[in-house]
UniProtKB/TrEMBL annotation:
Belongs to the NrdR family. Keywords: ATP-binding, DNA-binding, Metal-binding, Nucleotide-binding, Repressor, Transcription, Transcription regulation, Zinc, Zinc-finger. This is Transcriptional repressor NrdR. GO terms for molecular function: ATP binding; DNA binding; zinc ion binding. InterPro entries: ATP-cone_dom, NrdR-like_N, RNR_NrdR-like. The keyword Secreted does not apply. HAMAP family: NrdR. One of its GO terms (biological process) is negative regulation of DNA-templated transcription. Residues 46-136 form the ATP-cone domain.
Length: 167
């Protein structure tokens, strides 16, 4: 590794330690030419395999861009989008594979996006799953409605249970 101070072509590792649960390795290096010390960080590259077979490094920025587009005009703040992208990265890295199909990255986005904003979710799903008819939208909306009804039912049951205990 080239010294960032004097551009000397070589450096010596004086210390290595894992960070981020072993996802990263930080190395403290020393330049034999000027004696200055600097730190480098090594991270295993997670490759995303596109449908065309081309691979590219996983990019959280790219996820944020795609989700932000789906959230246009929706009451979703940047922090929530950043958090969602972080969740997606954790999900795909947790699979422990060095390469992941872009399809799986899309799948990892759908779940948390549905929890964040249903309209944004529909937009994203329509592109990702290539909806090509109104029936596709209808079916997806019906699934969303069923999930909402299930949540309401659970909330009501929970509220009734609480009321029963307090009375
Ligand atoms: Zn140097």
């Amino acid at each position: 590794m080239r010294c960032p101070y004097c551009r000397h072509a070589d450096s010596r590792v004086v210390d290595s330690r894992e960070a981020d649960d072993g996802q990263l390795i930080r190395r403290r290096r020393s330049c034999p030419e000027c004696g200055k010390r600097f730190t480098t960080v090594e991270e295993a590259v997670l490759a995303v395999v596109k449908r065309s077979g081309v691979t590219e490094p996983f990019s959280r920025t790219k996820i944020i861009g795609g989700v932000r587009k789906a959230c246009q005009g929706r009451p979703v703040d940047e922090d929530s989008i950043a958090l969602l992208a972080q969740k997606v990265e954790e999900t795909v890295r947790a699979k422990g594979a060095a390469e992941i199909p872009s399809h799986d990255v899309g799948l990892a986005i759908l779940g948390p996006l549905r929890d964040l904003d249903e309209v944004a979710y529909l937009r994203f799903a329509s592109v990702y799953r290539s909806f090509d008819s109104l029936a596709d939208f209808e079916q997806e909306i019906e699934t969303l409605r069923a999930a909402a009804r299930a949540r309401e039912g659970a909330a009501e049951a929970g509220a009734a249970g609480t009321a029963g205990r307090t009375n």
